[in-house]
Amino acid sequence: MTSALFDKIISDRKNLERILDNLKEGIIAHDLNRRIFFFNREAARITGFTKNDVLGRDCHEVFDGPFCGGHCSFCHEAPALIENDEYSINITSQNGEPRRIEMRVTKMNDENGTFFGVLTSFKDVTDLMQLKMRAGKLSSFANIIGRDIKMLQLFKQINDVAGYDYPVHIYGETGTGKELVACAIHNESLRGGAPFVPINCGALPENLIETELFGHVKGAFSGAVRDKKGRFELADGGTIFLDEISELSKYIQVKLLRFLQEGTFERVGGEVTIRVKARVISASNKDLKKEIQRNNFRDDLYYRINVIPIILPPLRERKNDVPILIEHFLQQAVERYGHEKLHVSQDALALMLDYPWPGNVRELQNALQFAIVKCRAKVILPNDLPMEIKDSTKIRSRTGPLRKLEIDAVKAALEKCAGNKTRAAKLLGIGRATLYRFLSAHTDIA
């Protein structure tokens, strides 16, 4: 087809509409007032609306809110500039069916280069995602890597809870990816695109955590030279992620409880009551029920934050994900540094599959970064791995199949884990109680 003939075909509006109607992607276009002026056949199939339902109407009015969820750039007024954007979101069709779509948004300019509207194209991947999940072929979801059955269950849980604003509490060991899961829930929800504000509650002293969370007014204390918004205000319309929530003092827990009940608080030193609409996702590597028994955590707050509990599996319980995680991190290194992609030898992989990974995915990532720096060839060998991985098999083999502990093996494990008994027990392949009983019987071990 010649260029002239093609120009002639698409210059006719009806021909152009026929072409767009035969695409396997939904297409919606609206002007700067959010008035929809194009809506193709696939968009109608996916959303359940007809052209007569939508043409000439405000996009937000048609879809009972922004179709793009929190990613929408037109929530208040037309932006001065909109960049191309791609993301996945969940929608509910007119007949109530949940759908997952991959969306691409781009700005439209006229012949003079003036921005006049937005073109949104999208495809329905609901059936494909469900098919992959059922077949165990899904290897990632919302930037989380894994194909183990426990991870597939986690992906489904993230997808299910994203459509609601109920508080979520994530429990998982250090390095299991609690913030990654919280961010995925946020991005998959209608709040995706709005602020996601994380704070590590255990990283700040008590005299700072209150102002970080709730802000302060000028003159509230020495050094408060101006008003400051807290994390809750910054998260308005979005999600606040409270990591290590178990470390909050009882005083801060009371203020947090009030926010969860009423959605209000006052800045430190202030008298004005501030109302914020933010979803609360919390996380901890401690068992909060045990913390309640120790009088460290309020039971009424526990029941407020634990509406939807999510438990993350440690890496040692999903060892079949180790190879694809290795592949993912090696590819990341290629994209970041531009060097040739490395591979892992069978012997090195065997060591990594045998290692219990007490630091979970974070430790695996760190180990690969160490190996990449040390590796002098194209293949990572056992000697390129960190010492604790190379030595772990020797340490655990000393215990024997009947788990008869030897003093030297326990000493070596405690040394490797800097005295951390929980991690040492995992490294030895025994329960923490077993290790404690052994240490009680061998008081000569430091």
The main pleated sheet reads as: 5 strands, antiparallel
What is the C-alpha radius of gyration, as a whole number of Å? Answer: 27 Å
Assembly context of the chains: single chain
Q: What is the domain tally?
A: 4
- Tell me, briefly, the overall form: globular
Q: Between the first and last Cα atoms, what is the distance in angstroms?
A: 82 Å
- Class from helix and strand fractions: alpha/beta
> Count of helical segments?
20
How much strand?
15-25%
CATH topology of the largest domain: Rossmann fold
Helix content: 40-55%
CATH architecture of the largest domain: 3-Layer(aba) Sandwich
Which stretches are low in confidence, meaning pLDDT under 50 for 5 or more residues running?
A: 398-403
Number of strands: 16
CATH superfamily of the largest domain: P-loop containing nucleotide triphosphate hydrolases
**Main sheet: strand order:** 2-1-5-4-3
The whole-number mean of residue pLDDT values reads 84
The CATH class of the largest domain, by name, is: Alpha Beta
InterPro entries: AAA+_ATPase (IPR003593), AAA_lid_NorR (IPR058031), Homeodomain-like_sf (IPR009057), HTH_Fis (IPR002197), P-loop_NTPase (IPR027417), PAS (IPR000014), PAS-assoc_C (IPR000700), PAS-like_dom_sf (IPR035965)
Domain PAC: 85-137
Domain PAS: 12-64
GO molecular function: ATP binding; sequence-specific DNA binding
